Each structure stands twice: as structure tokens, then as C-alpha cells.
Amino acid sequence: MKKRWLAVVLAGALAGASLAGCSGSDPQGPIISPEDPIEEEVTINFWGWGDLAEQQNYQTLVNQFMAEEGNENITVIYRGINSATYMTTLRASARNLPELFYMPDYDFLEWVSAGSLKDISAYVEEEELSQLWPQAVDEYYYNPDTATLGQSEGAGLYGLPKDLGPFTLVYNKSLLDARIEQKGLDADEIYAEYLTPTQAMTWEKFRTLLKMLVNDANNDGTPDDSVYGISHYEIETAVYSNNANFFNDDASEQRITDQNFIDALQFIADLTLVDHVMVPSALQSDMDGFTRFVNQQCIFSFMGPWDCAQFWGFDIPFTYNILPVPYNGENPDAMSTAWVGSMGYCVSARANSLQTAAAMRLAKYLCMNEDAQREFYELGQQVPNLVSMATDEYLNDTQGLLEGKDPADRSVWVDTINGTSDTDRIGGKVRPRYYTYSSGWYDDFLTYIDEQGLWTGERTAEQICKAYAPSFQSVLTEMKANLG
Amino acid sequence: MMSVIHDTTLSPVKKVGRIFLRVLIYALLVLGAALIVFPFVWMVLGSFKTPLDANSAEFRFLPVEWVTNNYTDLFTNTNFPIIKAFFNTVIVEVSVIVVGTFVSALAAFSFAKLKLQHKTFWLLFLMSGMMVPYAALMLPQFRAFQSMNMFDTLWPLILPGFFGNVSMIFFLVQYMRGIPNAILEAARIDGAGHFTSFVCVMFPLVKTAIAAQVIFWFIGIWNDYFAPSIYLITPDRMTLQALLGSLNPAQNRQYLPMALAGAVLSSIPMFVIYLSCQKFFIESLAISGVKG
Amino acid sequence: MYPDELVRTAGEELPSPRVPKKKKVSVQERKEHLIAFLFILPPIVGFLIFTALSVVFTFVYSFQGYNSLSGISENVGFANYIDLFTHVTRAPLFGKAIVNTIVLLLSVPFSMILGLILAGLLRLGEIKGSKFFQVLYYVPAVSSAVALNIVWNYIFRSNGVFNTLLGLDVIWLDGDVTIKVAIIFKNSLNAMGGAMILYLAGMLNVPKDLYEASSLDGAGKVRQFFSITLPLISPVTFYLLITGVIGGLQSYADAQVFAAGNTGATTIVYFIWQQGIQGNNNQGLASAASVLLAVLIMIVTLIQFKFSNKWVYEE
Question: Which chain B positions have a beta carbon within 8 Å of C134's beta carbon?
Fold first, then answer.
């Protein structure tokens, strides 16, 4: 009898343990005004990601924050996590979240709709938000009643933007200049015609330029010196820059059978298949685009502001510069549109009012404090969140903190975020995954087009997209249903 | 008998043939050995290359420049703290093996030498667990450890080990059955309880058998990757294999030489143990196969 | 060792002839029963928690949809099992994982053949350094799978040492077929040492007089190998096959470390990890796949118990 009794108890223990946490009641107190200093002692946990340098930078800033006036009672425990495992960690800790944490834009909807994030509207003033890039702030609004993203009647604010990062074209200037000389081209002409920071290239021009630069005497697709024109091509960027998208505005209907979408995919495939200037997809598993660029095995690639920290850290032996992404010149509606990534500082829904107040003080410090923002751009982590700082101090380096640091044309990033006048047509957009309940569909899509032989020319983009459309539509429908 | 070499009645032609055969056999064995050794040679060579060199499009056998900072980085870079990982691995090893071995040996003693009701049932009961794949147990355990706040700690790796190791129990049951009962009876007549006779009589007698099992278990834990890679996320809390996995150069090529250096370092203790106990390894393995 | 044999012998331990059969159990004996039970209690408790209960929960989860963020579970009936085979994006992943896992099992027979050849060479040549070769060939088996996978990935890169030394231009790490060939190649090499040692031990156990008798009948070495050696070492073959298949069905590191998730080499366990742990928030689906995997392995194990005495030679 005794044994059975014991077994039952143990079974109960494990079952209880695995069910515990389903029923947590969170103590909500009165909202503490953002102006008031924190009177009680409070400890908050703050999780972020990034490489070692970024983690150290954050620790420094967190220490500065705790030393500031009014924060004497706040203790922040910062934990930096490898970016590759960050979301897995956060998910595994979903029922025991830190008070403040990063939330990448492409996972925001799933988390906010599950009720894991706290509405922080009451902890931040309209005036404070108005200093920031409006589209960055807008990303973190959500209306739980209608399950819609963005600012709307009844929507709450569920995060402050950590950054806004345009992923634009980058070129190895040293390598490019050497090529121009080797080929006997006119450098001034090439720069004026193709490499203008204020004027994006059309796809045609970009292809012409790459074909001019790559050494492939027998035209077999393998450059004689293993230096390719471009490492890879960002799919969202090509799609956006042909005025196409994966789906309609509310992500309920697929749009991958639109001719513009198909053309964008085919453009990427043809860079390898027809023009022989891009690394074939089979070789992508040997080396990712970033590594290939650092190792000088391609002239062009893509980069975001956060990559600067690594580039500067590596002390790479070449200079580089950025350009707006190319667009389809044959499509009158198309303009240069890079994807712009963002991350939010979000507060756990379970944080009590005191913890929330403390977490929000820290989030605001990191997001909009001038000194903090200055430090971040100096470290090569981001374009400042503060519009006034980005468009003057950062752009013109009025503080002299970026002297001699690549890329020289930071204006490309500012323009991509800010948008420019209609004539030069440069802009940016958040990635499509932001609009969907979960983000796995994007990898599924990439796997599918790869397996169907888009990159090897076995099938055309048109055949593949048309074949995949019904499946993709049912995935979109399923994700909509998940939102309830 | 396959003895062909020392046959004295062979004709000279056949003798030449035999010598040729022998040379051929040696050549094949050496070729096989080269295939086995090569990855380790390549591991060591790569660990002295710079990331640029290791990832270069041009093939180079030896490092262009021999650098040691892949090794020194492992000791200084707080994202890949190999020393901490080593100690974490040792913590798991020691706690699991000390407690688990004692528990296993005690259970084996009971199965082999004590009057136990439903002995057959309990043994079969324990054995049935051996055919359940870990993947089929992983999710509930993962959720349970998560809700007990043991995610990203060593506990999920240690706790299950505290309850013993079924294959060790079976091996020891067999071995203990070979110990004459008279020895235990003598102890019992002297007034020793069952526990005392286990600790003072049985345990010393089966020490070597236990040591053999402990070494196998030790290596199993050392090389275990699946569970550590699931539960451990913070570099400071990882075991060696989890840390190596987090350096996976298939995901980030810049880490390649550092990952190879980590692979070299984490393999050294295994090699030392293996080579110093090699005779025993080969023998135990041979027995397991012949007996099925 | 086979369980029934073990249980039979262990169960017959310590008969007490002095106690008449029908006499009531003495206090002394009850005490021993209790102590004996207490001694085996920890492994039994461990089994109940970490195996029995976990299996039950996996089974229960496989009929649930679970949101790991909100912690809410709902019953979905057989939806997860149906999704495994019909869902537009997940069914192809699972299908591939099954096919890959089975194709990758090819390394088991290959390593056995290599091991058999090596053992035969060692026997045939009466090699002096036989022990040396045994120790060396077994090294990969005691090495970490992660470390080996990292270096093999490096070896198989398209501008890597494998292609260069063999003068090939194959892209091993991409593509459905080549990546499997690469994994089967490396796994066959890594496992051949263990097979060799077991075969060698098996060969040494074959009674010498059998060879002598057949030599008198005029049988050549080749015929002896096929008519005597091979049948007599069939228990080894069987053991290697079963352990190899069971291990192979649970393969994970090859898919995760060597192939870095390339769909040409994902395995069932990788699929379970990807759906249940990595962030797809799909523990129900992963549990359903786990249940199917457990059933598959159970079938293989039962085949072992059932047919071991029919298929293999035993004295």
C-alpha cells in the first residue's frame, strides 16, 4: 500500500509542478506617475541580446542609470544572452519573465496577443514619444479588442523602440576601387553613375555594374578569383523595391502571385543564373553573406547599423560604404525600399506597478536619454532614436565621435528611415513577419522556393509562387485564426 | 583455424603470395587508421588558423600563420567561458556519478542477494524504460523543470541521475550474483544489517566492476549534448558540449577556429581517460557484443 | 544479455531450504522484504517520475494544443496527428524528417561491413599490432559527437579538404542527396571501430575444431567464412544492427550541428526539437511526433526480443 501511495504523491508532485504558473495572480497596484521618483527599494531583471561588446556596453549604461538621481532605490540585474538563443530562452521563461526585455518586431504580435506584455501607455508622456521616430513608436501599439497592430482608437502601447535599423546595401570600397583600376574604368564616372548615396540604382544599373566588376573570363558563374559581385540578396528588399508584398495590409490574403512579387524573386535568381554575379545558393551554406563580405570574397552585401560594432571590432583591412538598395526602374510605382528592423523594450505583464515604474524609467533612459543614445551611436550599435539627434548630430558628426569611421555616407540610413523627397525615392519598411501571428512561415517559404529549384533555375519564380499560393493562403488564414 | 602465415609446408610461390597479402592487409589497416585520425589532425590544424585563413576560398593545408588566440580567447572571452563549462561538466559528472552509482549498486545488491518480493516484475519494470527514447520524455520534463524554475540550471541534468542507471544495475546484478553467499552470511552472523553488509562487504568486493561502469557512464555524461543543449542557455551555466554547440561554426563561420580549439580542449580529458583505460574499454565492449 | 535470462536467474536467488514452504512469513523475513524493497526504491521512483509519468504526459500533450506564452492548453483530439501528415507546411517537414532518418540508417550496415572487413583482415593477417588498431579505430566512438560534427562540417565544405584531396567539386553541405552521403560516410567511419571489435571478439569465440573439420572436407577460406564464421557471429551482427538502428532513430546532433538544420538532413528528433523547444510553440505536434517515434522504437525492440533466437545462432 505504501508504495502506491508514494507513487501517487510523486505523480501529483510532477503534475502539479507542470501545471503551476497557469494561475498566477499579478498584484497590480496604483500606477506610479512617470515623473515621481521611486521611493521604495525595487529590483528588476532586464534581459537583452547581442555579442560580448554589446553586453558590456549595456552593463555600463545600466550602471550609469542606477547612479542617476531618482534611481537610487532601483537595482537592475542585467543579463545579456546570445542572440541565436535569445528567443528560445525567453519562450522557455514565458511564465517567469524578467520585468524588462527585448522583443524583436517579428515576434511582437504573438507575444502581445498572448497577453505577455504590459500596456505601458500610462507610464510615458505623449511629449516624450514625439521626440522619437514616429514609425518606430507606432510599431509597438496594439489593440487587443480588434487584434490590430499600430496606433488606433483603443490601442495600447506595449513597448518602446530600442532602435530602428535599416538594412541597406554595402560595398567594399577598397576592393571596388582596385577593380575599377584593374579594368581601366573611369572612377569618377562609375561613382557618379552608380554609387550615389542620394540616388538609388535601378536593378538594371546594378546588374550592369556587377557584370562590369566581376572577373569571370569563361563566364561559368565561378569568378576566377573567387570574388563575387554580391554575397546574397535580401528577399524582402527586392520585393518591397518592386512595390510588392507577401500579403495585403492586414496579412489575410496572399499576394505572392502578383507579377511584381514574382519579378522580384526572379530578379534575385537571375543574378546568379543569368548574370553570374551572385554567390550560388548551394555555396551559401559554406559561408553566410556577412562572413563572405568580411573575408573580401564579394564586393557587395547588405548591412545594418548594428553591424558597425562588429566591423569596428574586427578592425577589417578595407574601407566600406553604404548605398540605398536598388529598385525596379521599369516599375513606375517602385522605389528603393529597404527593410527596417526594430526591437522593443517590453515590460512583463506580470510586473507590479512599482516594478513597472522602475522598468519604464530604465527603458526610457535607454530609449531616449541623450547621453545613452550618443553612446550607442558612438559604439556603432544604432542610428539614434531621437529624430533631432539623428538628423543633425549623428548625420554631420557634430560631436566628432565618428571621425574616420566607416561607412562615410550615414545619410543613407537616415534617409531610409526618414524617407526623402519624391524625386530620389528612398525609404524603408518593417519586415512582413511583423504583421503575422508567428514568424515561422517565412523560413518555410524560403525552404520551399529553395527546394523547388528557384535558385538553380529548375523552375521559374512564376511556377513556384503559383504552386505555393494555396498553401501560403491557408497558413495566413490559420495565423489569423490564432489571433482569434 | 585461419592461421595461414606460419604454415611450413607452403611452396615458395605461395609464400610470396602470403607476404604480399600481409603487406596488403597492413596497407588497408593503415589507410583505415589514417581516415580515423585525419579529422583530429584537421581539428588541431584548424584551431591554429585565423578566421580569415580558415574561411579562405583558397585551400590551404597548414595555417598561413600559426595563431594561439583561438585558445586564449576561450579562456578570456566571457561569451565562451570554457573553464566555467569545464567545472559545470565536472559538477554534473561528480554529483550524478557519486549518488547514482551508490543508488544503483544498492539496488543491484537487493536484486542479487536479498529476499525481495516480485523481483522479476520490478526488474522488468525498470528495464522497460530502456526502450523509451529520450525524445518521448523530453517535453513533459522540459515543462516541469521550467515551472520549477530549473530551466537554465544544471538540475535537469543532475536530478534524473540521482535515481540510478538501469544498465549499471543490470550489469552489477550479474556481477554480484557471482559473489558467494557465504561471505555475506558470515557478516550477517556477526550481526551486520543488510545495509552494513552492503557497504562493508559487498561494495569492496565489486569495486572494480563498479569502476568499469563508472567510466562508461562518465564518458556518456561528458559527451551528452541533447539535454544540455535544450536546458542550458547562458554561457556561464553551460556544460562543455552545450558550449561547443553554441559555437557551432555552421551557423557563424567566424567562430570556426575557436570552435575547433574548443573541440580540441574538450576532447583532451576524454583521450586521457580512454587511452589509460583502453584495454578495459575494448574488453568490456567485446563482452557486451558476444553476450548480446 | 537478454532480460528473461537475467530475470530468471536473479529471481531464483537465495532459496532458503531451512524454512518450510507453507510456514507463515517470519518477522525477520518481512523485515528483509521491506529493506530489500527500500534498496530498490530510488530507481523505481526515478523510473516512475522520469520515464513512466513523462511518457504518459507526452501522450496527453499529443492530444492538446498548448500556447507556451499564455500557458493555456486545449484539447484538440487527433488534430496533431492529422497535422503531422496533412498540414501544408509541417507535414512536408515531418515527412522529410522520417525519410532522412531512415536513409541515414544506411550508415549502420556500412559500418558493420567495414567493421567485418577490418576484423577479417586482422584475423587473416594475424596482425601484430591488432590491439593498437582496435584502440585507434574505436577513438571516434568515445569522442564527442559535437566536436566531430564541427570538424566534419569543415572537412566537407565545398572548398574544403575532402574535395581538394580527392579532386572533387561536390557541394556536400547543400542538396538533398550529397549531404546525406556525407553524413553516411562520416558515421560509417565513426562506427566501424566498434563493429570491428565486436566482430573480432565474435570470431575468436568460434570453436577452432569447426574450421579444422571443414578444412578436412576441403573447404577453402572463402567458403569457411561464409559457411562457418558468418553464421556463428550472427548474434554480433544482430546486436550491432539493433543497437545501430535504435541509436540512429534518435539521431539529433548530425542534423543540428553538422547540417545546421538543412532540410536534406533533418531527423525525427530534430523535428521534435524544432517544433516543441526551439520556438515554434508547437508542443502538441512535437508530442505527437514523439509518440510515433516511441512506438517505432518499441517495435524495433520487440522485434529484437521476438526474433533474436530465430535469426541468430546460439549454442
Answer: 282
Give domain limits for chain B: 12-68, 81-246
Residue B57 confidence (pLDDT) = 73
φ and ψ at A47, to 5 degrees?
-110, 135
Task: Dump the DSSP string for B36-96.
Answer: HHHHHHHHHHHTTS-HHHHT-SS--SS-SS---HHHHHHHH-TTS-HHHHHHHHHHHHHHH
Helix and strand counts by DSSP (H, E) for chain A: 21, 13
Distance CA C83, CA B286 (A): 45
Question: pLDDT class for C197, splitting at 50, 70, 90?
Answer: very high
Query: What sign does the dihedral A389-A313-B56-C149 (CA atoms) show?
Result: negative
Nearest one of A83, A138, A130 to A304, comparing CA atoms? A83
How far lies A207's CA from each of A270, A328, B180, in Å?
10, 11, 86
Residues 6+ apart with CB under 8 A from A69: none
- Do C144 and B222 make contact, defined as CB atoms within 8 angstroms? yes
ipTM: 0.89
The type of residue at B255 is Y
Grid cell locating B125: 519494470
Q: Where are the domains of chain A?
A: 29-164+341-396, 168-340+410-483
Q: What residue ranges of chain B have pLDDT lower than 50?
A: 1-5, 292
The superfamily (CATH) of domain A168-340+410-483 is Periplasmic binding protein-like II (3.40.190.10)
The bridge status of strand A168-172 relative to strand A156-157 is unpaired
For chain C, the domains span: 100-311
Average pLDDT, chain A: 88
Question: pLDDT tier at A8 (50, 70, 90 boundaries)?
Answer: very low
Distance CA A143, CA A34 (A): 23
Among C151, C232, C236, the residue to mutate for chain B (most B Cβ within 10 A): C151
Mutation for testing the B interface, residue in C113, C137, C144, C301 having most B CBs under 10 Å: C144
- The type of residue at A90 is L
Contact C52, C46 (CB under 8 A): no
**Per-residue confidence band for A79, with pLDDT thresholds at 50, 70 and 90:** confident
Could you confirm whether domain A29-164+341-396 is CATH 3.40.50.1390? no
A115/C70 CB distance under 8 A: yes
Residue B81 neighbours by CB under 8 Å, 6+ apart:
B235, B236, B243
CA of C21 vs chain A CAs: smallest distance (Å): 25
- A partners (3+ CB pairs within 8 A) are B, C
For chain C, the average pLDDT equals 86
Fold classification of B81-246 is: MetI-like fold (1.10.3720)
3-state SS record for C24-71: CCCHHHHHHHHHHHHHHHHHHHHHHHHHHHHHHHHHHHCCEEEECCCC
Say if residues A265 and A449 touch (Cβ distance below 8 Å). yes
Topology classification of domain C100-311: MetI-like fold (1.10.3720)
The C-alpha atoms of residue A364 and residue A74 are separated, in whole angstroms, by 14
d(CA A249, CA A264): 19
Under the banding of pLDDT at 50, 70 and 90, the label for residue A23 is very low
pTM equals: 0.86
Pull the grid cell for residue A96: 517567469
B1/C205 Cβ within 8 A: no
| Calpha distance B206→B184 (Å, rounded) | 13
Residues of C with CB under 8 A from a CB of A: 37, 41, 45, 48-49, 53, 57, 67-72, 88-89, 93, 157-159, 171, 173-176, 260, 262-263, 277-281
